[in-house]
């Protein structure tokens, strides 16, 4: 069954009945295999970032636990929302996103997250690495995405901006001040 949009056409001057013209909403821009594959790479890394963020959230311990625990929630929510945006963009381009657990595990670029409790300082480093890896995937596919579909590239821009901000904010927890000598 195809989705349609009906548009009412103005009544003719002779006072006759209004007519409708059916327009197929399923036609339009269709992603190539390359664009689909590139957006799929982004999707699986965002899903994996969400899952690893939850793993970190549940198992982080140590100094500044509460602040990091809450910050991880923000990152998790954002990664989940971003994965939904990318998956829905794939659908809008007539492609089928694949977020099944076996697909994510087999194709993500993110390294495996350690099991068990992890100290806050190590968690900061691990999450920063995963944020940067996710951004790295997006930057790797960006130019090809932009060449075919600038609208999808705009979505990547917004996600990159937010994930880089999270990486900066999380990593600041372990940084020492960089004091320039005068």
From TrEMBL:
Gene3D superfamilies from the UniProt entry: 1.20.1260.10
Domain of life: Bacteria
One Pfam family of this chain: Ferritin
Domain Ferritin/DPS: 37-175
Xref: InterPro entries: DPS_DNA-bd, DPS_DNA-bd_CS, Ferritin-like, Ferritin-like_SF, Ferritin_DPS_dom
PROSITE patterns hit by this protein: DPS_1 (PS00818)
Annotated spans, Disordered: 1-25
Protein family: Belongs to the Dps family.
This protein's name: DNA starvation/stationary phase protection protein
């Amino acid at each position: 069954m195809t989705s349609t949009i009906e548009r009412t056409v103005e009544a003719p001057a002779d006072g006759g009945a209004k007519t409708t013209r059916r327009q197929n909403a399923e036609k339009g821009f269709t992603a190539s295999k390359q664009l689909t594959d590139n957006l799929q790479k982004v999707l699986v890394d965002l899903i994996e970032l969400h899952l690893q963020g939850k793993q970190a959230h549940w198992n982080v311990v140590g100094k500044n636990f509460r602040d990091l625990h809450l910050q991880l929630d923000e990152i998790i929510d954002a990664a989940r929302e971003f994965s939904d945006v990318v998956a829905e963009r794939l659908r809008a381009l007539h492609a089928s996103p694949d977020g099944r657990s076996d697909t994510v595990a087999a194709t993500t670029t993110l390294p495996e997250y350690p099991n068990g409790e992890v100290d806050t300082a190590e968690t900061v480093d691990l999450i920063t690495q995963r944020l940067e890896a996710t951004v790295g995937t997006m930057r790797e596919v960006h130019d090809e995405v932009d060449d075919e579909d600038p609208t999808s590239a705009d979505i990547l821009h917004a996600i990159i901006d937010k994930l880089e901000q999270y990486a900066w904010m999380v990593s600041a927890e372990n940084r020492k001040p960089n004091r320039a000598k005068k």
